[in-house]
Amino acid sequence: MSTNVVDVTKKFGDFQALYDINLAIEDGEFIAILGPSGCGKTTLLRMLAGFESPTSGTIEINNTAVADASFSVPPEKRDVSMVFQGFALWPHMTVADHIKFPLRYDQFAAYELKQNMSQRVGDVLEIINLQDKGEAYPHELSGGQKQRVSLGRAIATEPQLLLMDEPLSALDAELRIEMRREIQRLHQITGATIVYVTHDQGEALAMADRIVVMNKGRIEQVGTPEDIFYRPETEFVATFVSKANIFRGWWEGDAFHVADSSVVLANVGTTDALKASGIYALRPDQIELTDVALNDLTAEVLTRQFQGKEYHYSLNLNGQTILVQRPFTDVYEVGERVGLRAVAG
Ligand SMILES: Nc1ncnc2c1ncn2[C@@H]1O[C@H](COP(=O)(O)OP(=O)(O)OP(=O)(O)O)[C@@H](O)[C@H]1O
């Protein structure tokens, strides 16, 4: 199901939560909306669901307007399902009942699915890998199983648009990684369009076809995970997604003059958009550490953290903290002075 957000703004009283949002989502795409707390991602998702309406602009689903400033098609009249952060399961209903519920009451449930309800419940239990738990109640399930039930309930009627609001945030770190694979599999099986809200860049990079990075109510950049990670176009995207170190100064062609120093750095992948704002961005994995004598840019090792295959260093570069990731073979001591070299990547 294609979805278009056209020139949308949203105000809550005097507070403007969304500015000039334009986004075209193609049928079957997995879109992650990524941004820090309060940037407006849930508001945008709730607008797609029909729980909020725009202050100005239009939302279109399959080329038909479903909301603008003057009207909004209510959630139950959109072929859309939503998965929430806190599972939102009903304590008195079994797993099978949760899956039956939308099949009974959702007006978009196809007649064949309603007619063959027990078959569909069995199929969904299989998809979410809870074949043996149909008669279990929520309190008898683990966190991961509960989230699988809420995913099962959401896909039961084969909705064309699945909206997910931080669905993994209530789970522990290991389970979150496992559930990423389950959600990817669900996307492959159902072919549904998914809009997935998260503040976790790892989730967005791992699962999405395209990522929409938001900050303070505005879209900063839309692109594939590789675009967003390797070719950030704003300082916010560079720091929020790829944890880049930002150097200030000015560009002369492909040479960057670091402010307040005589150091000149060669371009190793800074986008034109970042160049236009006088910024040089270097991800932690784009910095090599060398002997001090080999580079003009030198810094002192502040901390070193062992992370298995690599060390994570923080360095003091004239008062600025620089983050660097090096392979486990590059060992430097806290207090040591090192040279910094930018490498492409
Ligand atoms: N009903 C409302 N009334 C007033 N302000 C609201 C309302 N809903 C959201 N806001 C404000 O709009 C801004 C965006 O909220 P939103 O929930 O969309 O952010 P978010 O990016 O999803 O954040 P989080 O990750 O913390 O949920 C916030 O400053 C929030 O306080």
Features:
alpha+beta; binds adenosine-5'-triphosphate; 2 domains
Q: Could you characterize what this model shows?
A:
It comes from Fundicoccus culcitae. With 345 residues, this protein is an alpha+beta fold. The chain has two domains: 3-227, Rossmann fold; 246-342, Nucleic acid-binding proteins (OB fold (Dihydrolipoamide Acetyltransferase, E2P), Beta Barrel). 26% of the residues lie in helices and 34% in strands. It has a six-stranded mixed beta sheet with strand order 6-7-8-3-9-10, with helices on both faces. A five-stranded antiparallel beta sheet has the order 15-19-16-17-18, with no helix packed on it. Helix 2 (95-105) runs parallel beside helix 5. It is globular. The chain starts with a strand and ends with a strand. The mean pLDDT is 93. Adenosine-5'-triphosphate (ATP) binds at residues 12, 15, 17, 35, 37-43, 199.
